[in-house]
Design brief:
Length: 211
């Protein structure tokens, strides 16, 4: 995984120089949960994702979309009559997704599928609890994650689909739906802490560069 991260950095620098590079500026919503066993009803965290990517042509209708984004993830749990707890984790995420789709010729739409790896670096982690413990009182607290500490880096794979529509020769609109699976536990040295599961819907503009 470290090799993947290192290889992404020069691609991000070199991408704007490549012929027929497509640069995307995208924003959207993350619906994030954590894969963990338990009796509590899990609540998804709705967060945002904002990023920039560059799609490099590899072959006919195949390209490599390399990008970086700020992504909000996390989860929560609730129990009737007791209360709820929530976890908010923010990341800087790098991805290298292969896109296989229909040609962008003419003014018609181009549709395609996405698949590839990603790596995310934890920027912040906060936990909150709103509990009614009956005769023991109530708990309403929010604090940064400390024990256990959050895992500094997450990684995984993503799969999805998207469409682009030309507005002009120099501007396209894009819409993507992507599902991401994290492979790292969200807490260090806690094998039962769960892994991120995130459904992302994002829209943005795609600008062709080069010829």
């Amino acid at each position: 995984m470290r090799r993947i991260i290192v290889s992404l950095l020069p691609l991000l620098v070199a991408a704007p120089l490549a012929a027929q590079t497509m640069v995307g500026i995208r924003a959207g919503l993350n619906r994030s949960t954590v894969s963990a066993e338990g009796d509590l009803t899990q609540d998804a965290r709705m967060g945002m994702i904002v990023g920039v990517d560059a799609a490099l042509p590899l072959a006919n209708s195949v390209e490599l979309r390399v990008g970086g984004a700020y992504a909000q993830k996390g989860s929560g749990a609730s129990e009737t009559g007791i209360g709820s707890i929530s976890l908010q984790m923010d990341y800087f995420q790098l991805s290298a997704l292969a896109r296989m789709g229909t040609p962008r010729d003419g003014g018609g739409p181009s549709v395609g599928v996405l698949f590839g790896p990603w790596a995310a670096f934890n920027l912040s982690c906060n936990a909150s609890a709103n509990l009614d413990l009956g005769e023991f009182g109530s708990v309403n607290e929010s604090a940064s994650c400390e024990d256990p500490d959050p895992t500094a880096m997450d990684f995984g794979v993503a799969v999805g689909a998207g469409a682009e529509l030309a507005v002009s020769e120099s501007l396209r609109l894009g819409l993507d739906l992507v599902y991401s699976m994290g492979f790292a536990n969200i807490a260090q040295d806690e094998p039962d802490s769960g892994k991120h599961r995130t459904l992302t819907i994002q829209a943005g503009v795609v600008i062709p560069l080069g010829g």
